[in-house]
Design a protein that fits this description.
This protein is an all-alpha fold and about 250 residues long. The protein has nine helices and no strands. Helix content is about 60%, strand content about 0%.
């Protein structure tokens, strides 16, 4: 596998540029892939959200839908914005102005919902004794990375759209991201983006690298096994257990 580093003629990249915009992305991708494989291979019982609904449900019912639906919209928006070139949407009849208006509106809505839900869930975790006791060190690091990434992305989105001349990330960050996936990283593209976008990207790579070592792995869980697994039959070994008369359909298995 060969990686071709692209740069403008006559422009020298610093060690920090190579570290942040070439080494970090590939290290994060490799760590995430290997980490998820290792976690699934050797820690299947830990592949869970470690549900705490038993301890408190009122705040969970409010914060969980806000966070999960919000983050789902955030993920979909990033997939469209990063992986689909601007020319494709324009050829589909979506003008650049319409795309950015929809992106800004949905992005701000998704950001508000996600951050509000996260705030409720973190407050619940901190103020509910049993839930806080079950919080691991990795959980705390994960919350810092997750909330930091969300705040940087939300702040950049709001500030960028409040600017009279907003930066078009589809001409810098998006093609740079695709160049990483094609092993031809074009660092000039991401270096042309404002600082807010760059900080958001760095935080996202750090979160992505730490992902497999947290409860966030449950994102990749699908309950397909429920469709084919056999029924579970509960029966007592003591035939004399219980004094209530047997009801039709509930007779003991002998």
């Amino acid at each position: 596998m060969n990686v071709t580093l692209l740069a403008a003629p006559g422009e020298d990249l610093t060690a920090a540029d190579i570290l942040l915009w070439v080494a970090l992305p590939y290290a994060a991708i490799a760590t995430s892939l290997v980490g998820h494989y290792w976690r699934y291979r050797y820690d299947r019982f830990g592949w869970t959200t470690r549900s705490s609904q038993l301890y408190e449900s009122r705040l969970l019912r409010l914060g969980s839908p806000l966070f999960h639906y919000g983050i789902l919209l955030v993920i979909v928006g990033h997939i469209v914005g990063l992986l689909i070139p601007a020319g494709w949407t324009e050829s589909g009849g979506i003008s650049d102005s319409v795309y950015h208006a929809a992106s800004a509106g949905l992005g701000i809505l998704a950001g508000v919902a996600t951050l509000a839900g996260a705030a409720i869930l973190i407050y619940r975790r901190r103020t509910t004794g049993p839930v806080f006791s079950a919080t691991t060190r990795n959980d705390k690091i994960m919350y810092v990375l997750l909330i930091g990434t969300l705040l940087l992305g939300f702040g950049t989105t709001v500030f960028n759209n409040a600017n009279n001349h907003p930066h078009n990330y589809r001409e810098t960050v998006s093609p740079w991201f695709r160049s990483i996936l094609t092993f031809r990283p074009d660092t000039d593209l991401v270096l042309a983006a404002p600082l807010g976008f760059q900080l958001h990207v760095i935080a996202a790579w750090l979160l992505f690298a730490f992902w497999p070592f947290t409860r966030l792995v449950h994102v990749f869980s699908l309950p397909i096994g429920y469709l084919t697994r056999p029924y579970i039959v509960y029966r007592s070994r003591d035939r004399e257990l219980g004094s209530r008369p047997e009801r039709r359909g509930w007779e003991q298995i002998r």
